[in-house]
Amino acid sequence: MKKLVLLFAIIAIGTSSFAQDIKYGVKGGLNLANFSGDDLNGDSKADIYFGGFMRMTLSEWLAFQPELVYSRQGSSDDSEGIESKFKTNFLNIPLLLRAKMLGSDKLYAIAGPQVGIHLSSELEEDGDSMDFDKGMRDMDFSVVLGLEYELNTQFSIEVRYNFGLSEIFNDDYFEVDAKNSVFQVGIAASF
């Protein structure tokens, strides 16, 4: 994890030397998370995400925006008379490009890769819960796609979809094709 944080810092510092303007901010909102894959048919689980970002303006219409986001994800299922929730916690590091949409001064497209560091997991069935950390892989890789609308110079609304690329379960414990699938709606404040 230390190597990943160091890489994040090097990218941010290296890119900031090209930046014309740097803004910092905080963000948070609602996750609608689920697992995608051939073997799964669970329901979305609502939870939260929050974190911070640094936005470095590269040109009039393009910015680089690395982020550090705590995200509560997972899935829920209510089939065969058993109610279950799978709760996972990730520290996500999106490395995004933010581009102004043509014809608008307030609407931006956001896209880029995301590295997720697994923090903890828990499986809850009919009120009983058990630790599921060993059943999870340490890292998750995703692609982030989204839109951001600036309400004013300080606040904006964002809508994103995090499309998982890597399987999240450790094959030694749980042989299921599952990737993270997270839809996010939130607000960001920059200063």
From TrEMBL:
<keyword id="KW-0732">Signal</keyword>
<dbReference type="InterPro" id="IPR011250">
    <property type="entry name" value="OMP/PagP_B-barrel"/>
</dbReference>
<dbReference type="Pfam" id="PF13568">
    <property type="entry name" value="OMP_b-brl_2"/>
</dbReference>
<feature type="domain" description="Outer membrane protein beta-barrel">
    <location>
        <begin position="18"/>
        <end position="170"/>
    </location>
</feature>
<feature type="signal peptide">
    <location>
        <begin position="1"/>
        <end position="19"/>
    </location>
</feature>
<dbReference type="InterPro" id="IPR025665">
    <property type="entry name" value="Beta-barrel_OMP_2"/>
</dbReference>
<protein>
    <recommendedName>
        <fullName>Outer membrane protein beta-barrel domain-containing protein</fullName>
    </recommendedName>
</protein>
